Amino acid sequence: MEIRKLQLIGGSSYMVSLPKSWIAANSLKKGDELILHVDVNHIKIHPKKQPHSLKGRVKLNRCDYSFLKRFIHSLYVQGLDEIVVEGNFNSCSITRISDIARNLMGMEIIDAREDRVILKCIAETSLEESMNRFAQIISNMFQLLKKGLKKRDSREFADITKLERDADRIYMLAVRKANKLLREFSCPTNWDELRYVLGVRTVSKHMEDIADLVYSFSTKASVNPEGFLTYIPDISEAKRLFENAYQSYVNSNVALAEETIHAAEQLQKVASGEMLSISMQIRGIGEVAFNKSVRESTVLF
């Protein structure tokens, strides 16, 4: 038998902690729901059974649009919550899959790489997965912008427009999940949780602004690509710095955050227009990453 003290939180709510061994034995994690059977003299607690998540993995040898659409639709109607599609993908084939997913209610691409693309039901998507996909979309937008300028290819600019719409949807999803976390705090005075959510909100806003700025730049460049060729080095540097800024935030890498802030400041001195604004947003992510890294490495006593 264990004895635990009842605690008063928030001035009007009471809380009692649960044994860590019981949490582990029932494979529970933060945010999981518990069922309480309340009687006059006792309360019985047991975990709420979670519906089984159905996942599927498939390898594809062709990526033409009509085949992809038919194949992914077939997987979707089978009720899969997560679909891992393996193959050899480039930015064009990933864009095709993104177009298909856009018409499947509740499905989002949460990871897109050269060897696999993962689609997942929104309800099953974590905040971390949403943010990682958001970062992937922005990196792809930078890459398409460079390719569009180099090849003078209007299709690359058109794909940026599609990705910008995806970025808006993922941003709203990330903010929605962050707000849900705020409501699910086990203790209103848990400053680590609060800082985490506020950090996500700040970084995701910087990312949304970057996506909007890349899209704005691409609409101008698509009209006269030759007139924007001199921006290619700045675009390459902005892509590199954005990826470094995001990685320094995710991994709490203070050295990488400091390097990114300094490099973004250097880019600000030579950039103009949207590129100048983008460098400022990247610096903002770097500063959030720097503060997060310092905070997490500090031992309080």
Structure description:
- The chain is α+β, with helices and mostly antiparallel strands and 301 residues long.
- It has a domain at 165-297.
- Helix content is 59%, strand content 13%.
- The protein contains nine helices and eight strands.
- It has helices at 20-25, 65-77, 91-101, 127-151, 154-183, 191-221, 232-250, 254-270, 273-297, and strands at residues 7-9, 13-15, 34-38, 43-47, 55-59, 82-86, 107-112, 116-121.
- Helix 2 crosses helix 3 (91-101), helix 6 runs antiparallel to helix 9 and helix 8 runs antiparallel to helix 9 (273-297).
- The radius of gyration is 23 Å and the shape is flat.
- The model has no long low-confidence stretch (mean pLDDT 86).
Mean pLDDT: 86
What is the radius of gyration?
A: 23 Å
Q: What is the H/E order?
A: EEHEEEHEHEEHHHHHH
> Which stretches of 5+ consecutive residues score pLDDT under 50?
none
Q: What is the terminal-to-terminal distance?
A: 32 Å
State the helix count: 9
Number of strands: 8
What is the approximate shape?
flat
Question: Biggest sheet, open or closed, and with what strands and sense?
Answer: 4 strands, mixed
Order of strands in the sheet with the most strands?
Answer: 5-6-8-7
| Broad structural category | alpha+beta
Residues in helices, as a percent range:
55-70%
Proportion of beta-strand residues: 5-15%
